[in-house]
């Protein structure tokens, strides 16, 4: 009696073989897929038919001709002058010495500018001083000074700077106020100073000269 083969057993035996075949096929497919991704298809020159590409014009390159060389300078031959030529005789010039002796140019010498002495000095070797001293001079000023009524009513006090010139004779001239206090004080200071006695004149280089002076005169009310 023959033994029957169980088909399920045969399938189980062959299942391992099928598994290996399937695994091998899957691996081959995976490798072929990687190779397919890595391949990059680029068109070749043969694939381009050249249609649509304009041909660029060929521009010839030209070079200018080199400049011509400058001509060599032509040296002129020196011309020789013979020494045996006869020179014309020089004219005999005669000058009458009497003409030069009698001629005298009329040249008038220009007058030298006169050195003008200064009108006055500010500082000299010997400065002027009041005759009798400054104490006597200020005593005269205080005695003859009258306080202006306007300044007295307004209660104005101040110092007046008066400029004047002592001339060669010691006289007080050109009296004027250079810094005043107003209210009639300036005019009163000028009036009294113009009436003051003469001074001893200043000296420069041993001679009397004009000297400019400035003195202050103070006006003060007595309370």
From TrEMBL:
Transmembrane segments: none annotated. It is a single-pass membrane protein. GO terms for cellular component: outer membrane-bounded periplasmic space; plasma membrane protein complex. Its main location: membrane. GO terms for molecular function: energy transducer activity. One of its GO terms (biological process) is transmembrane transport. Gene3D superfamilies: 3.30.1150.10. The keyword Cell membrane applies. It is found in: Cell inner membrane. Residues 132-223 form the TonB C-terminal domain. Keywords: Cell inner membrane, Cell membrane, Membrane, Protein transport, Transmembrane, Transmembrane helix, Transport. PROSITE patterns: TONB_CTD. PANTHER family: PROTEIN TONB (PTHR33446:SF2), PROTEIN TONB-RELATED (PTHR33446). Belongs to the TonB family. This is TonB.
């Amino acid at each position: 009696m023959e033994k029957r083969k169980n088909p399920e057993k045969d399938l189980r035996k062959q299942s391992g073989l099928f598994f290996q075949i399937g695994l091998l096929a899957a691996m081959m497919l995976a490798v072929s897929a990687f190779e397919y991704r890595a391949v990059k298809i680029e068109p070749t020159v043969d694939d381009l038919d050249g249609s649509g590409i304009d041909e660029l014009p060929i521009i010839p390159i030209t070079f200018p001709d080199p400049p011509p060389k400058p001509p060599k300078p032509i040296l002129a031959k020196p011309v020789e002058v013979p020494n045996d030529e006869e020179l014309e005789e020089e004219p005999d010039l005669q000058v009458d010495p009497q003409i030069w002796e009698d001629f005298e140019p009329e040249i008038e010498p220009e007058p030298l500018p006169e050195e003008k002495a200064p009108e006055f000095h500010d500082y000299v070797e010997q400065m002027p001083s009041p005759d009798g001293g400054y104490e006597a001079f200020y005593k005269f000023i205080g005695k003859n000074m009258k306080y202006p009524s306007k300044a007295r009513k307004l209660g104005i006090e101040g110092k007046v700077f008066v400029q004047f010139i002592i001339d060669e004779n010691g006289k007080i001239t050109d009296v004027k106020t250079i810094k005043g206090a107003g209210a009639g004080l300036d005019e009163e200071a000028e009036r009294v100073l113009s009436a003051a006695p003469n001074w001893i004149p200043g000296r420069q280089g041993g001679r009397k000269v004009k000297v400019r002076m400035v003195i202050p005169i103070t006006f003060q009310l007595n309370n």
